[in-house]
Each structure stands twice: as structure tokens, then as C-alpha cells.
Amino acid sequence: MTDTPTAKTPMLRSQDIDGALLEVDDLHVHFASRGKLFGTTPPPVKAVNGVSFSIAPEKTFGLVGESGSGKSTVARAILQLVDIQSGTIRLAGDDVTKVPPRDELDFRKNVQAVLQDPFSSLNQVHQTRTIVGDGITRHYGTKAGAARDERVGLLLDAVGLSREFLDRYPYEMSGGQRQRISIARALAVEPRLIIADEATSALDVSIQSQVINVLRRIQDDSGVSFLFIAHDLEVVKHVSHDLGVMYLGYLVEKGDANAIYDAPTHPYTEMLIASIPMPDPGVQAARRELRQTFEDDAEPPSPANLPPGCPFENRCPVAMDICREVMPEPTPAHHGGDVRCHLHTSGPELAGESVVEFIKTKAQSKLSGSQRSTDKSSTP
Ligand SMILES: Nc1ncnc2c1ncn2[C@@H]1O[C@H](COP(=O)(O)OP(=O)(O)O)[C@@H](O)[C@H]1O
Ligand code: SF4
Ligand SMILES: [Mg+2]
After folding, report:
1. Closest to 110 measured CA to CA, from 193, 217, 218, 199
2. Which of 24, 131, 231, 339 has the CB geometry, 3.0–4.6 Å to 265, for a possible disulfide?
């Protein structure tokens, strides 16, 4: 982008960042449960438990997991919208949980968010020129007028919308167009990190891929990093360099996105992959078979009452005795990241390698077992 106005606050540039742009270390976020239970205070909801990951400049870290796994709480902790229990969150080396009020503008400039529902996050009574232009005024001092409109126009170019959108109100746009305006608004202050929380989840598949292409192009052009959050593993894998898989507040697996997708090391990741619909009927049938080995109907534990062991134990087809008692610690995995699962240190000792063949073998023996019992019950 050209014609960058002079920033009121210092701008972080990729070349100035030595190491990670964002480092989240051992993050815990608890929420007080509402109400009293038989006169006693109920235990807190442990929404995020010991989450650690980092995002390099110009890279995308994808965060995936079922609804309620704590993804948005991680995002809100980074954005300082919730109090954290413990842990550190560093942006270019500075602990953002200790940002004094005078540096708040600087932080907001470097970290922007794009959320799921642009209709509620865009001010309905303003045209695009104001929605996108306001941040330019706040952070660069450029007053409303031709120069600011020109800058907003360049941002519209970047998100693939024509200059006609300068005059439009949010209610005059489609969902995909509104989401592009949200992205333009985030980009207006030239952030180093954009947190996109379910930003494409409400869009039709074709619009979703258009918006994702916009995000990719923006990354190529501006070098911005993304924390891309969604419950759909296929979408997340498609856009991410690195991937983190969350289950009940724990980051159960993290590492190179393609390597995890090709050879996951955690049974829960394998369950998510087995749930992705495939066009090839043979592959789809094999995935369905694998999926059936997981205890799909088992209710996950409550985040207000987590078990002492692995929280995935009651759905896991390969759980062992130790899994009920001890929460696994992160162990190095083949994809350059780590995995929280006892299979890598106990039992078969997979030592950070793929869990796929191990679960398939279990699936086959489970299926042949149930086949035998069906044969027996049908014997006259
Ligand atoms: N403000 C809050 N007060 C109490 N519990 C909350 C609050 N926000 C989130 N939670 C709980 O924290 C857990 C994680 O929620 P969330 O981070 O929104 O998950 P996700 O984004 O993965 O769907 C859920 O059990 C949710 O009900
Ligand atoms: S720790 Fe045990 S229960 Fe948890 S995912 Fe690994 S094998 Fe399954
Ligand atoms: Mg969420």
C-alpha cells in the first residue's frame, strides 16, 4: 500500500522483531461460575489451561477445536478483554498483560480483530468511509476528507471492493462484503497481528474461499500475521502455517499444519480429520469406519469439573489406565511441535509419531469384534 500517513504511535515492522511476534506461555483463564450451588460457590469454569504457542512475523497460526474448547477465550485474553489467571502474553517481546493505559493505543494499533458477525460489529449508521476511516483518524490524525477517502479507497482495493462502497452502509451489503469491510477496517491501522475469530464461519463456502484468498493476498502484500480461529479443521489447515488443536481448554497438539493434517499424533486431531467429508466414496467410507471407533455420543466433561486425567479419555478409542489418572504433559512430536497424549510415552510409546495406523488397527479389531458378536446373535 502507498501513501502511508505518519503514525502517531510507533509501528512494529517485521524486520524489527527478533524472534516471535506473539508468544503465549502457559496461559490459564478461569471464569467464576454464576450462582450458588446448595449454598456453596461452584468451582470456576477452567476455559483455558496451560496454553502455549507462538506466531512468527508474516505467518498464520490456526486454532481449531469444537465449540466450547476455549478458542475465543484465548483470543479475548490476547486482546485483553478478559482477565487471565496466570501466564504471559508477549507481543514483540513486551508483556501485553502489563500494558499501561498510555500504551493502549499502540497495542490496539498493532493487534486488530475480525470477528464472526460483521453485522453487529460494524456501526450501522455509518458509511464505509467512516467505518474504515475512523481508525485512520484515531491512529494517524488524518481528518475526514478527500485524503482519508483516498486511503480508505486503497484499503477497499486491497479487499477486492470497488470505490462505490465508500458510500454504502452495512445493511446495503452482503455478508461477504461486510466481512471484507471488517478486514479493511482492521488493516487501516497497519496492524502486525490480526485475530480472525470464526471470521469466515458464517459465510457460504464459495464466499468463504474468496475472503480467505483476500487474507492470503494481504499477508503477502503487508506481512501481517494472523491468529486464524475456526471450528472447521479443513478451513484452518488451508490457511495456516502452524496449527493448534484445542480440547476443553488444553492445546492437545500443535505444530506444522500440513504435517499434522497428514500424520496427526493426538487421537482427537485424528477424530477431527476423520470427520471431514471427502468426495471419494472409498476414502469417505474408510473415514466413517474410523470415526465409528470414537465414543461420539459420550458427553465431554464440564470445564467446571475437569477430571484429573486426560479430558478426552471417555471418547478416546485407545485410552489406557494411566489416562484416567494423569493429565499428559506436552511431548515433542514429529511435526516440530508437541502433543499431550500418553500414547507417546506409555503403552505403545509412539514417541511423537503418527497415531493413525495405531487407531486404524484398533478400529479393525473393534469392527471384527462387533462383526463376530453380530454373527453369534444371528446364529439360530
Ligand atoms: N464470560 C464467561 N463466563 C463464564 N464462562 C465462559 C465465559 N466465556 C466463555 N465461557 C466458557 O468457557 C469455555 C470456552 O468458551 P469459548 O472460549 O467461547 O470456546 P470456543 O470459542 O472454543 O467455542 C466454555 O465452556 C464457555 O461456556
Ligand atoms: S492421553 Fe489417553 S485418553 Fe487422552 S488422547 Fe491419549 S490415549 Fe486417549
Ligand atoms: Mg468461539
Report:
1. 193
2. 339
